[in-house]
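SAMPLE LOG
Freezer: B-3
Tube label: C17
Construct: single chain, 471 aa
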Amino acid sequence: MRKIDQIYLDGQFVTPHGTELFPLYNPSTEERIGEVRLADETDARAAVAAAKRAFVSFSKTTKQERIAILNRLSASFTARLDDLKAAMVEEYGAVRGIVDGLLPLAPGMFDAAAKLVESYEFTKTRGTTTVVMEPLGVAAVITPWNLNIVFVAQKVANAIAAGTTVVVKPSELSAIQTQIMTEAFDAADVPAGVVNIVTGRGDVVGNVLTSHPDVAKVSFIGSTAVGQQIMRNAADTFKRLTLELGGKGPTILLDDADLSSAVPAALASGFLNNGQTCFAGTRILAPQSRLDEVHEAIESAMSAFKVGDPQDPTTGVGPVVSQQQFDRVQSYIRLGQEEGARLLSGGEGRPEGLDKGWFVKPTIFTGVTNQMRIAREEIFGPVLVVIPFEDDDEAISIANDTPYGLQAHVFSGDPERAQRVARQVEAGTVLINRIFSDPEAPFGGTKQSGIGREHSVYGLEANLEPRAITS
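STRUCTURE (predicted):
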C-alpha cells in the first residue's frame, strides 16, 4: 500500500503541517491502495510565501531561460509517461485508449509553451505607447482528478512561459499521479519556489489559495458550484480568474448527417473518460424525421463501448472514480426512469459479469424532453440522453436552453449549413464533424461553464498583465 506523506514547497519535498490521512482506492476493484497525508491552511500559506519570494527573480528571467525550463519539463514528463499512465489506470480507472491517446499531451504542453514564448512579443508598440506584457504574480492552479496530469501541465506551462510562479492544488483523489508528476517537476531543475504542489481539500487549502491577498490569479477546473465560491473568495482582492466549469454539451445531428460516422462519434464524445469530462456531448439532439434511424445507429454502435478492466485495450468504458460518484450516477439513472424517459441502452446496476468495482452500464435515454433533470444537470458519468427536434431552429433553441455553454458538436453533410448552425450555438467551442478541439484555439466556457480561456496565446496572456507606458 502506497503512503504519500510529503508535499513540494520551495523546491523541496517536505512533510506537511496537516495531519489528515485520506484513503486511496482502485475504482476497478474497490481495494484500498494507499493513503495521502493532506496539506492544511498552514501549508497553503507557506506555499504562497515560497511562490511570492520566487516571483521576484523569476519574473525577470529572459525568454531563453524560461524556454530552457520548459524544454527540461517536457523531457522530464516524457521520461515518466509510463509511470503516469499506470497511475491513471490504477487510480481512477482511465482506459488504455485515454492514457495512450491523451497523456502525451502533457509534455506537449511544455513544448507548445516554449515555442510560443520564442515568438511572442512581450513588448509592443501601440501608437505612441509602449505596452509591456508583464507576469501577474503568484497564480493558484486548482485541478480535478480527471486528466489531472494534462491539466496541471497545461496551466503550469502557461504560467512559466509568462514568468508567473504557481501553487498547484491537485485533487486528493489523484495523489499517486501527483506524486509522480511532482517528481518530474523536481527532476527538471525548476528554480525553487516557481512550482509548489500542495495536495489538500478544496474547503481547506483551496479556500486559502482563492482568498489569499498574495495570490494574483486563480486558474480552476471543476464544478460550477465551486467556481461560484471561488469568485466570491476572489472578489475582495480582485483576482484574475480562469474558470473552466460544468457542462451539458449538445451534440446536434442535423438531418443530412452521415449517421454511420456521426453516431459513433457522438457516443465517443459522451462516454469519453468513462463519461467523466466536463466537455462531453451528453445531450444528443436528433431530427424527428430520422429518430428511428438514430436509435438503430446507437444500438449498433454500443457494441464498441465494452465495459471492464481499464488495462484491457479492448475496453471502451472503465469505472467511475468513487463509490460516491457511482451512487450519484445510479440515482440519475433511476431519476430518468421516474421522469418518464425510456432506456434505449443500459440501466441501473453494474454491467453483467462485473460484481466488483464502480462500473456503470453505459446508459442512453430516449423519449427525453429538455426540461427533464437528466437533460439539464451534469451527471458526470456514462449517461446520455436523446432529444428530438423538428428543424434547425428548434435544434439551436434546445441546444441553447441550458445554463451551461462549454463545448458543443454539430454533425452535417453540408459545411455551410453546419457553420450557420454552429455560429448560433452558445458555447465557448463548437466542433463540426469532430469531437476533439484544436490546441491552437481558445478553450473555455460561456454562461455558467466559466470565464477566461486556455490554450496557445490565450492561455499565456491569461497569466500576463498589460502595462501601458506613454511618452
